[in-house]
Amino acid sequence: MDTEYGYSYGYSRNPMATAAVVLGVISLFTCLIFYISIPCGAMALLFAILSRGKEPMPGKSRTGIVCGTVGMLLSAAITLFSVWTVLTNSQMRTYMERYLQYYLGDSSFDLDQELATMFPALKDVLGIDDSEINESSPADGSDSHIKELLPADDAEEKNKTDDAVRDNTPSRQLPSGKGDFI
Question: pTM above the 0.70 mark?
């Protein structure tokens, strides 16, 4: 008997099973957000398994397992499809290449060559021959274009740069004419 009055409501009060259902439904509804769907689905599976205890698995737990699994599978499928679409669409790769050129500050950056160097299996998908792959690539360990972005190593060059900036900075007078205001 579940209550002090002697009758049963027909459902079990298992908080783990309830948590499994809630997390499974969250995983299902957020399948477009990989970083939410996968952890919620995994937690739904975990809570569903833990809710069993010594009794047979409640219906809520089975529902949590189904929703969590479907949410995780949908999320993984959507993510893989999106990555595949971006890699096979030349217009999208061009957009990404321009963004990376701007971000890295290297106008000679070639996304297709970098992808082919890092993932040799993509050569056929991208349509790149081995002769097109540049030998100087960050994936190979050469960091020629990264050195341009690093600060000067020589302290003397740094001091010269600081002096030049200080000399070119206009000083402003305070309204009262007392002192410099920068």
Answer: no
Q: With beta carbons less than 8 A apart as the criterion, state whether 9 and 55 touch.
A: no
Rounded mean pLDDT of 56-74? 91
Is the domain of 78 the same as that of 20?
Answer: yes
What whole-number distance in Å separates Cα of residue 159 and Cα of residue 182?
Answer: 20
Residue 109 makes CB contacts below 8 A (sequence gap 6+) with 97, 100, 101, 145
- Give residue 145's domain range: 90-167
The CA distance from 4 to 85, in Å, is: 60
Sign of CA dihedral 105, 106, 111, 116: negative
- Domain membership of residue 42 (yes or no) is yes
